[in-house]
Amino acid sequence: MSTPIGRTHARAVETLSLDATDTRNALSAALVRDLANALADCAKDPEVRAIVLTHTGNTFSAGADLRDPPGPDALVGLLRQIVELPKPVVARVTGHVRAGGLGLVAACDIAAASTTATFAFTEVRIGVAPAVISLPVIPRADPRALARYYLTGERFDPAEAVRTGLLTITADDVDEALAPLLDGLRRSSPQALAETKRLLTARVLETFDRDAADLTALSARLFASGQAREGMTAFLEKRDAAWVV
Q: Which of 158, 159, 163 is CA-nearest to residue 146?
C-alpha cells in the first residue's frame, strides 16, 4: 500500500518526507495518520536519535486538505505528538509553507529553511482562523508579528520567519546549514536529549492542556460556517471570495 510519507535513515537520523506532491503535501486524513504512525515508530526505535521532517516537491505543505481534511482532533494529536516525542524533530523546508504547514514547522524543535522558502497564514482568506495550529505557534512566535500575519494572510520570507521565532535558521544551502546541528544531536545522549526537550517544551504543552479543547471547537465551528464554505469554494474555483472588495 502506498503512503504519503517517505522514510530514509542515515547515521541515527530518520528522515520523514511529506510525499503527496499532487496535493502540494496538503494535510489530508491519510497524510496526518501516516505521519503520526511514522513518528510513533521513530519514538520506539533505539537506532533513531533524531527525526528530520521534510518534503518532496516545491511545497512543504499547503495546509489542510480541503477535500479530505483530517479533522481538528487528529491535527491536534499530530502536533502534540511532535512536541512530546522524546527525540528532537527538525523541520527542513525548501519550498512554500501555508496555514497548517506552519503548525508542523512550529511544533518541531529546530526549523531550517532555504532562502527560497515562503510562508503565509492564509486561513483568514478562506473564512477560518489559525485555531489548532496556534497551540505550538503562539508560544514560540513574536506576538506582534503574529498579529500582522494572522490577520492579513500576507506572505513573508525566511529571514522574517527567523526574526519572529518560527524558524531557527535560514541559508542558501539548507543541508549545509543543518549539518552541524545534526552532528550535535548525534553527539548527544538519548537520555539527555529527551530530558532537555522536556524542559524546552513544557510551556508549549501547557498551552495544549489549557486551550486544545476550545481551539478544536473553534476550528470545527468555523469550518462549518457559511463564510468558510464560500471561502473554500472560491479557493478551489480559483476566484475571489464574495467578501473581497
A: 163
